[in-house]
Structure prediction request, 341 residues.
Amino acid sequence: MIRGVLGKTFRLVGYTIQYGCIAHCAFEYVGGVVMCSGPSMEPTIKNSDIVFAENLSRHFYGIQRGDIVIAKSPSDPKSNICKRVIGMEGDKILTTSSSDFFKSHSYVPTGHVWLEGDNLQNSTDSRYYGPIPYGLIRGRIFFKIWPLSDFGFLRDSPNGHRFSDD
Amino acid sequence: MAQSQGWVKRSFKAFCKGFFVAVPVAVTFLDRVACVARVEGASMQPSLNPGGSQSSDVVLLNHWKVRNFEVQRGDIVSLVSPKNPEQKIIKRVIALEGDIVRTIGHKNRYVKVPRGHIWVEGDHHGHSFDSNSFGPVSLGLLHAHATHILWPPERWQKLESVLPPERLLIQSEEE
Prediction:
């Protein structure tokens, strides 16, 4: 009787570990489903939208300008931020608003990216905390699955003027 | 004929079952619990690699200890390089968020470490690409805590969390 219960417990623990490890490998190396909160990426991603993120681009260093990425927050490593890549290393970034008369530029340092939310009025991003290291990027968001009215690949940035002209 | 085909099919099934169990478990263990790595470079001499390129130390990297991003001053940690995401660097933690550091060769003489960041330095000042070059690093880049030297056998030891006392200027208040 005891041996039966013990055997069942071991089997349960074994399956839990096995499926937990498969889940870890899937989330870490392939991708997963994410729920976004906050207004900083409107209208592309609204509060409580559910999106699909893939991690292959990060591992193969294929993140490009214009991609929407999930990254660890530079000031709080336990929370994630969801923003668009405006500049890669070496790009020239406009750090003042385009309506200002005296524009100021800066260059994105090596190994870093410049992130901005699509909702420029209501987004805490690289304009506030500066460029973030590429190593903080967790994955790339490319597909929205909820709400169903907005199902599909994500659109391009509504702020085309923020991308520097080469 | 049918007998030998059954044997091949059965061993293939057994191989698949073993593969899909062993590989994820091993990968998860190496990513989340611990792994080993060879140290290259002279930036942590004399604590690591005192023999230069003749004999590189192999260290045990403990991921489990930093799963909540908790590190102490003096720990030797490995992190993703902020200047090159394909490379990992191994340095000592000198200061935590809120501390003020007296820098060597940085553009500012004194730096206050911002929230969610740490200040790392190699023990071999002057031969080290560390926070004195790239400033405080975000805790999100933390990879593992190096706890022991495993190879060569005569250098088998536990790495102590020792903080050189003159590096830190002011420590942040701790409750």
